[in-house]
Amino acid sequence: MPPAPRRFLPSTAALRALEAVDRLGSVTAAAEDLNLTQGAVSRQVQTLEEQLGVPLVIRRGRRVVLTPEAAHYAADIRGALQKITQASLRLTVNPTGGSLDLAILPTFGMRWLVPRLADFARRHPEVTINLTTRLRPFNFASEPFDAAIHFGNADWPGTAAMKLRPEAVVAVCAPGLLEGAYPERAADLLRLPLLHIETRPEAWAAWFAEHGVEGAQVTGQIYDQFSTITQAALHGLGVALLPDYLAEQDLATGRLCKAWGGPTPSPGAYHLVWPVEKSRDRALLKFRDWLATQTEDDERLPR
Questions:
Q1: Residue 255 bridge partners (DSSP)
Q2: Element (H, E) at 210
């Protein structure tokens, strides 16, 4: 591939100036963020305009506002600057063994992955694992990740995947919520307040369908993580669908009780996913092979 023309490879300083103006909304704030003078930031943006040959800002008196096109451009280069930063950090921290930037689900990381990483570090001390939580799928092209732990189907565009484990959920609530009237059928739960995880909007509908209740109109409060929905259930705010491993301790102590039924299979499963172009990355291959050994005999993989 021939090198790009010089005009399409602006200096990092100019790109950082434009990105900061877009992110912070003013030249003054950008200058403070970059530890430069306002004049220096303005000159960088002006140089970038001259190099690209297109207007990037609208000057309104002493104010500078990015054009809509420049704002889109700034969003694109923000991802590129993040990748450069991550690549430089990886090289600095671990110049010989490589590293893996992994996006994880919060509960999976806290309950299962992190406690096991000591074993990976012992087996592969040459590889550095960097963890960041993400609740939703994202575009690998614009995020600085080499792989991710994902719940759902193996249909993430542009990725390869390794299935880890399915999930089973149990409907639980605080004992006081039932007030001594234990539901006789799954449909009886529709009379109670139901708690939802925003990343799995169809979870309750699938649970009811699994128990023969089709077309259930399910409403209720929405939570972003299992940690918060668990606390809501403990405080009597409603019935929650929790992975069975998460509910075990509170069920054993009596803080929670089963609202109806037992563990029920969830649609979807947990996967390690990675961009297809990363498939031969040495650090990723080592982590993937190790992760496979950790899940082979694990009946209940925490999520």
A1: none
A2: helix 203-210
Give the C-alpha separation, 285 to 51, whole Å.
42
3-state DSSP assignment of residue 164: strand
Helix, coil or strand: residue 206: helix
Measured between alpha carbons, how far is residue 248 from residues 70, 78, 255 in Å?
Answer: 52, 43, 10
Per DSSP, the three-state class of 146 is coil
Condensed to tens digits (0 to 9), the pLDDT of residues 180-214 reads: 778 999 999 999 999 999 888 889 999 999 999 98
The rounded percent of the chain whose pLDDT value lies above 70 is: 91
Contact 300, 245 (CB under 8 A): yes
Task: Tokens for 153, please give them.
Answer: 């189907």
Provide the token pair at 247. 């509910």
Amino acid at 166: P
How do beta strands 147-152 and 99-104 pair? parallel
Residue 257: enclosing H or E segment and its boundaries?
strand 257-275
Give alpha helix (H) positions in 257-296: 282-295
Q: Are strands 99-104 and 220-223 parallel, antiparallel or unpaired?
A: unpaired
Mean pLDDT for all residues in the chain = 87
In the DSSP assignment, the letter for residue 104 is: E
CB neighbourhood size of 277 (10 A):
12
Asked whether the beta carbons of 266 and 167 are under 8 A apart, the reply is yes
The answer to pTM > 0.70 is no
φ, ψ for residue 151, nearest 5 deg: -105, 135
> CA 103 to CA 144: how far, in whole Å?
9
Question: How far apart, in whole angstroms, are the C-alpha atoms of residue 216 and residue 196?
Answer: 14
Question: HSE-up of 143 (CA within 13 Å, CB side)?
Answer: 17
Token pair of 174, please? 């605080």
